[in-house]
Design goal:
Number of strands: 8
Structural class: alpha/beta
Largest sheet: 5 strands, parallel
CATH architecture of the largest domain: 3-Layer(aba) Sandwich
CATH class of the largest domain: Alpha Beta
Strand order of the largest sheet: 2-3-4-1-5
Distance between the termini: 72 Å
CATH superfamily of the largest domain: P-loop containing nucleotide triphosphate hydrolases
Strand content: 5-15%
Bound molecules: adenosine-5'-diphosphate, magnesium ion
Order of helices and strands: HEHEHHHHHEHEHEHHHHHEHHEEHHHHH
Amino acid sequence: MGQRSRSSRAPQRRLVLNRERELAQLRYALDGALCGRGQVVLAAGEAGIGKTTLAQEFAATAARRGVRVLWGRCGDREGSPPYWPWAEILRTLAEAESAEEMRALFEPGARYIGLVLPELRGRFHVERSSIPDDHSVRFHVADAIRSLFHRAARQRSLLLVLDDLHWADQGSLFLLEFLAQDIAVHPLLVLATYRDGEGAPPLVEMLGELARLGVPRISLTGLTVEGAGCLLARLTGRRLATRVVRQIHARTGGNPFFVTEMATVDIRDPRAIPVNVRMAISKRLDRLSALANRVLTVAAVVGREFDFPLLRAALSDVDEEALLRAVDEGLKTLVIEPLPSRGAEWYQFTHALIRDAVYESISPSRFARIRRGERTSTSCLTKVRTVSARVIGAITTGWSRSNANTIRETCFG
Ligand SMILES: Nc1ncnc2c1ncn2[C@@H]1O[C@H](COP(=O)(O)OP(=O)(O)O)[C@@H](O)[C@H]1O
Ligand SMILES: [Mg+2]
C-alpha cells in the first residue's frame, strides 16, 4: 500500500544516561504484555528531558524481543488532520503486511478505519456517505481500530509508541482512552509521551481518566551531575572540570537538551545561553498571558528565587487576584515552582536558564519601567533594598558586568 512512511519509522538509537529505573519499569510492563497482560504506560516531562529518547531505547529493546513496534507522532503544525498519530501507526502496519494479511486485518471495520486512513476507502470500496455524521462516529472509529489492534496483537505482540501526546487531537486522545479500557487481556503495550504543563484541557481530562484506570506514569527528571558530565564529555570529546560540569548542571537542571546545547557555546562562560535554548524558552513563554510574562520579567530582575509579596509590591497597579492567576499560570506550565524551603510564598524559576533568558530579554526601556513601578511602592523599594545584595548579585550574573553599574543605578537610584 503505497510507499512506506518515513516518519513512522523509529529514529536511530542514541546515548541514554540515567534511565535505568525507567527502562526497568518499561521492561517489566513488556514482560506482562508478552504474557497477554497489556497496558498503557505514560512517560511525562518537560521539553528536552528525554521522552523520545527513552521511547526509542525501549522500542529497540522490544523489537529485539520480537515485538512489532509502531510509532505515531502528534504534530505541532496547524492543519494536522485528526487522528494523525494513529494514521501513522495504521499506515506502517498496513504497509508491512502482505495483501492477504492486510485484508484480514483491515477489512473488518474498514468503513470507520477509512476515516483515519483514507486510502483504505478506495481499496475496500467504502462510500463516505455510508458513514453516519454524528457523535457516535468517534465511538465506531475507536471500536474498529481497537479491534484491529487486538487482531494484529494476536499474530505478534505489539508496542505502540505515541509521542508528544500534548499535541494530540481529541479523537486521538479518545482512542487511547478506549484502548486502555480492556488492554489488560491483550498482548499489546502502548507507551505514550507528553510534556508536563503543556496539555490542553482534553489531555488533562484524559489523563484523569487514565489515572482512574490505574495507568502508570513515568515522570522524567534531569540527568545527575555525573550523567551531565558524561554527556558533555561525549559531546565535546574531552572531560570537563568537575566545577564546570556542576555549574552547567545547576543552570540546566540536568535537562539533556539544555546540556547538549551548552556544548555549542563557550562552556566556561557562566552567562552563555545557547540560541536553541533561548528559542525553546521563548516558545514556552509565548504560551503564557501578557500579564504572566510581565510578572516573570519582574521576578527575573529579582533573581531565580522570589516571593509573592515582592511581586505584589512591585506590580502594585495589578489586581491581586490577577497576579495570583499569573503566578498560577507560571506554576501550571512549570516555568516556576514553589520553594517551600524558603517560605510559604516563595517561588523559583524551574531552571536558572529560564530566568537568565527572561532577564536577558528585558529591554532598557522595560528596566526603566520596572524601576518606576518599584518607586511608586516604597514598601517594595525598602524590601528590595533589604535584599539588594542578593538582587545585585543576581543582576550581575545575569547581565554582562559592564552593564551592572547602569542596572544598579537604574534599579536603586
Ligand atoms: N538519557 C539521556 N542520555 C543522554 N542524552 C539524552 C538523554 N535523553 C535525551 N538525551 C538527548 O537530549 C536531547 C533531547 O531529548 P529528547 O528525547 O528529544 O527530549 P524530549 O522528547 O523529552 O523533548 C536529544 O539530543 C537527546 O539525544
Ligand atoms: Mg520528543
